[in-house]
Predict the structure.
Amino acid sequence: MDRAEVDKRIRTLIEPFNQKDVSIEDATSFTDDLEFDSLTVMDFVAAIEDEFDIIISMNQQAEIENYGQLVDAVLILTGKG
Amino acid sequence: MPDTAGQPGQATDLFSRFDDIIALRDGLLDSGVEDPFGLVMERVLSPTVAICNGRETILLGTYNYMGMTFDPDVVKAGKDALEQFGSGTTGSRVLNGTYVGHRDVEDALRDFYAMDHAMVFSTGYQANLGIISTIAGKGDYVVLDIDSHASIWDGCKMGDAEVVPFKHNDIGAMERRLRRIPEGAGKLVVLEGVYSMLGDIAPLKEMISVAKAHGAMVLVDEAHSMGFIGPNGRGVAEEQGVLDQVDFVIGTFSKSVGTVGGFCVSNHPKFEVLRLVCRPYVFTASLPPSVVATAATSIRKLMDAQDKRQHLWANSRTLHKGLKDTGFQLGTDDTQSAIISVIMPDLERGAAMWEALLHEGLYVNLARPPATPANMTLLRCSLCAEHSAEQVETIIGMFERAGKTTGIIG
């Protein structure tokens, strides 16, 4: 699984959470652009964890501010980064 | 103060981060309601009645579940200790702050839970903060319910472990997270017996079985169950028959015990080392002699309080049914604990309902985000074994009138 594949799968997962149809770029911020609150973050993280069978601890989440960083983190956690 | 953030040479007001909450509070008070977070009890007549704003008020939001605060034996023990040992210890438990009373209350806890070790902290908050941050270190994983109490979250934040939350009471979500933890890492699962916001209980039997199957240690916070859930009042884990599989029980003196303080009980053979390495235990003054004396007396009386327990459960069931029948939306479908949580449509109407109840002569807790799950506004009622059956009927009538006045029920 390369970065493009991870990107594609996360893009599909984010759809139900992207209520305002914000255009998703690597620099898209979860708090500022997508306006995720803590509950949304938990549900979204759970969806990604289940899709890729990984854990993204809250400590790791604190380092992830935008979409591109998330894709990179998932790539590393799945052992492909 | 003008917003000068980011301008060169201008100081940034650190308090600007609180602007949203200041605006929220101002908005609420501008609407004319009484400050729900600034109530003063002018006199306290009993565990269930106080004078607030000159008005006699039934207390239905105190967590004083077993009504021990005015128990004559408890009050006498406190007075005696105050006279014999003075007003405070002025010291840490590991220096000059351990008196015979501190040892006595730890003995009472060991007897109450039938466990080998008991460690008393100055508050329940510090018990969670201290135990969680100390036992789970770098490279370990803390797996916890997303609706955990602030003291549990703060314990996680203070420690160095990886923090992994799961959806409230979701056994599958917890299992999937435990399964993905790297081989060899230490694991601590943190659960609560009763979750205080909605008053619902955890499926501890199933969750602890899953935790143990994955080699995790288990900590259960039984703050809201001590004294009346389980055959000996040891909590939800006892009620579900799994207390022997719990590694650490966290509890508090500020609910059923009727004073202040926190504790952890455990059968872990190395438990006593925590007295040397747990910073929220070491670097704070110990509880005053009067407090530990009242706690020890109260805990021993709670061991033999079957009648009070039954009355508390009867009160809880009556109130739950009464409010449900009146048309209120409640946090649980059935009575699971002594907390009955009434769901409000929003903060504004919740505050209006809270004030209407206060004018009726009833005090409940108003709870709002971020303390509440799913951004709910709640009116939380906690029953007391000292509420009379008549008081509970009066309370239901007050809810009905206030609910109609504020338009929350039809």
User: Anything to note?
Assistant: The mean pLDDT of chain A is 93. The longest helix of chain A spans residues 38-52. The radius of gyration of chain A is 12 Å. Chain A touches chain B through 15 residues (CB under 8 Å).
